[in-house]
Amino acid sequence: MERARPFLRVQIAAIAIFAILKLTRSEWLVAAPPRMVEIFLWSFPNLFESVIGVMTLCALMIIGHERELALAKRLNSPAILMLSIAVTIIYAVSQELGLHRAIGGTNVTDINDVYFSLAGALGGGLIAWALFRNEATIV
């Protein structure tokens, strides 16, 4: 669990920022901001959702690796990183394109949400890469 702690810390910070954005967004939108600001306010939380996804998957795979679970034990740091980014992108994009409606999703399709989700997955990947460069988290 020790190796997963940096990823969990980033995840907690991203959740806090996500919650603050979601809670304060309506106050900003009441002021009728310019279109670009409005797009930012609606779509920016998706960036943090993807960062949270990458951090969660990295932490879970590291914990699985430490506990010597069969599949996770075969994964090294680059494999964990790439798999986390790929799964996050697949999930986020499929959600934004409405493929999850069958299981109760009510998301409105917006291409800007897709862009922010992709940016978040790649940004989360860069953060995870930086964390993996630290010898304490290498698996």
Mean of all residue-level pLDDT scores: 85
Helical stretch tally: 5
Cα distance spanning the termini:
12 Å
How would the global form be characterised?
Answer: elongated
Kindly state the percentage of residues in helix: over 70%
Query: What radius of gyration results from the CA coordinates?
Result: 16 Å
Report the sheet-strand fraction. under 5%
Describe the structure.
This protein has 139 residues and is mostly helical. Helices cover 76% and strands 0% of the residues. The chain contains five helices and no strands. The protein has helices at residues 5-30, 35-66, 70-73, 77-96, 111-133. α1 packs antiparallel against α2 and α4 (77-96) packs antiparallel against α5 (111-133). The longest helix has 32 residues, at 35-66. The N and C termini lie close together (12 Å). The model has no long low-confidence stretch (mean pLDDT 85).
What order do the helices and strands come in, and which of them pair?
Elements: H1 5-30, H2 35-66, H3 70-73, H4 77-96, H5 111-133
Helix pairs in contact: 1-2, 2-4, 2-5, 4-5
Task: Kindly list the characteristics that best describe this protein.
mainly alpha; 5 helices; single chain; 0% strand; 139 residues; elongated
What is the compact description of this entry?
It is built from 5 helices and no strands. The chain has 139 residues and is mainly α.
